[in-house]
Amino acid sequence: MSPQKALLTAAALLTAANAREITFPPVSGVQQPVGASYGNGVGNMGFGFGDDPLDLSNSQFAGLTTYANLPYVHCLANTTATGGEVESYDIAILGAPFDTGVTARPGARYGPIGIRQGSRRIGPFAYNIYTGKNAFSTLKVVDCGDAPLTVLDNTIALAQLDKAHRVVSARKADSDVASVPRIITLGGDHTTTLSALRSTVDHWGAVSVIHFDSHIDTWDPKVLGGGVSHYAGVNHGTFLHLAHEEGLLLNSSIHAGIRAPVGNKHYDLRHDKACGFDIIKARDIDRFGTQKIIDHLLERTNGTSVYISVDIDVLDPAFAPATGTAEVGGWSTRELLTILDGLSGIHIIGGDVVEVAPIYDNPGETTTLAAAEVVHSLIQLMADTPVKPTKN
Ligand SMILES: *[C@@H]1O[C@H](CO)[C@@H](O)[C@H](O)[C@H]1NC(C)=O
Ligand SMILES: *[C@@H]1O[C@H](CO)[C@@H](O)[C@H](O)[C@H]1NC(C)=O
Ligand SMILES: *[C@@H]1O[C@H](CO)[C@@H](O)[C@H](O)[C@H]1NC(C)=O
Ligand SMILES: [Mn+2]
Question: Which keywords fit this entry according to its UniProt record (predicted)?
């Protein structure tokens, strides 16, 4: 036999051996796939199989990628395809793929899809090890997909987002403990928060904003962009000025994690105060710790409806490199999550995670994993405190 022939015969034998059906012996005590329900009402880890591994109806990592594998609902539709009413929900995840209001690195239009990607291991089986709570067990949370926003005209795009927020928040809530659905927006650059606040004012009036960010974002358009054109003055550094001007903010708002320089230390900071804000700086965490920061946020906003906006650049670039205007010297992901979870009981009426630009992330998805977990915390805060609107 020539050497080549011998090799071919050996390969044929190997293939035949591989074709044999391999049956692993049962593991002592576990006679079903990992993740299957343990029986007796003990919950399973949600890897997707019940007692029957060929039951494909509930798998965790298959199908389309929604936030935390939540059901997708076409929340913007007038009716369902068959003419029925759109499914009801209590908390709506809404993507806002808009990033033409940025002053540095673009890319946050891919934030919603990135955050969903980072959320694949968050799911209804998860109980928080610190609180023992499951964020999805009381209120109905759905993913509405992204609002369709034109990429070539900011004015039209923001009008589209305003409308999306009005439509999604105008439906009847699913649960009878909450009567208006609340929205968590996946940004998008920070300009998108303006649309959210234009819709929360319809239900709750002016609100306190807890604004996690390294930048103040109350810049007067006269200072940032507006010198170029009126249009350019509407951007991710001026939206809180605009929200104040439109009467959407209470004078009990507060920034947390600030560390970026201001352009004019007298005017910018005086103006910031006039817009309704107090400031917790990033390094305050070294002096006071997370608990004092939580206490201050709760005191400042006490008795008001609160919107929580998280610019992912509040985190240090070590924890969130994938953002447009990264500033060193920020908080860690653990510190931010501790502070967010510490706000339990707050009257939260809406929230967002913005400025996630996945193109600058690393192969480990550091930023989108963090952003997805921040959304998870916001959902838990909403589940902890069902709210009724103070207007209509
Ligand atoms: C949905 O309703 C709006 C306003 O009532 C209407 O203008 C629009 O054409 C409707 N869309 C569809 C697809 O029926
Ligand atoms: C808000 O409160 C600050 C002091 O905390 C004050 O300087 C500012 O004038 C107030 N603004 C309004 C609109 O009441
Ligand atoms: C909020 O205000 C109420 C009533 O004034 C007060 O009893 C409570 O201690 C305040 N809570 C915080 C966290 O400041
Ligand atoms: Mn910002």
Answer: Hydrolase, Manganese, Metal-binding, Polyamine biosynthesis, Signal, Spermidine biosynthesis
The answer to whether 361 is annotated as binding is no
Tell whether residue 278 is among the known ligand binding residues. Answer: no
Which segments of 205-283 does DSSP mark as H helices, in order? Answer: 239-245, 267-274
251 lines ligand 2 (CB under 6 A): yes
Task: State which of 252, 253, 270, 273 you would mutate to test the pocket of ligand 2, scoring each by most atoms of that ligand within 8 A of its C-beta.
Answer: 273
**Per-domain residue ranges for the chain?**
67-384
What's the rounded Cα separation, in Å, for the pair 155 and 153?
Answer: 6
Asked whether 274 lines ligand 2 (CB < 6 A), one says yes
**What are the average pLDDT values for consecutive 10-residue runs of the chain, which has 392 residues?**
57 58 60 37 52 70 86 93 93 97 96 97 86 93 97 95 97 89 98 98 97 98 91 96 98 98 94 98 98 98 98 98 98 98 98 98 98 98 94 72
d(CA 215, CA 193): 14
Q: Specify the amino acid at residue 133.
A: K
* Residue with CA at minimum distance from ligand 2 atom 4: 273
Contact 355, 189 (CB under 8 A): yes
In 85-137, DSSP assigns E strands to 91-96
For residue 234, which phi and psi values (nearest 5 degrees)?
-95, 100
For residue 252, which ligand has an atom nearest its CA?
2
Strand 253-258 relative to strand 141-146, pairing: unpaired
**Structural element, H or E, at residue 184:** strand 182-187
Judged by phi (left if over 0) then psi (alpha if -120 to 50, else beta), residue 348 lies in: beta
Pairwise CA distance, residues 200 & 197, whole Å: 5
Residue 163 structure tokens? 């409308």
Phi and psi for 193 in degrees, rounded to 5? -65, -30
Domain 67-384 has CATH 3.10.280.10: no
CA of 176 to the centre of ligand 4 (A): 35
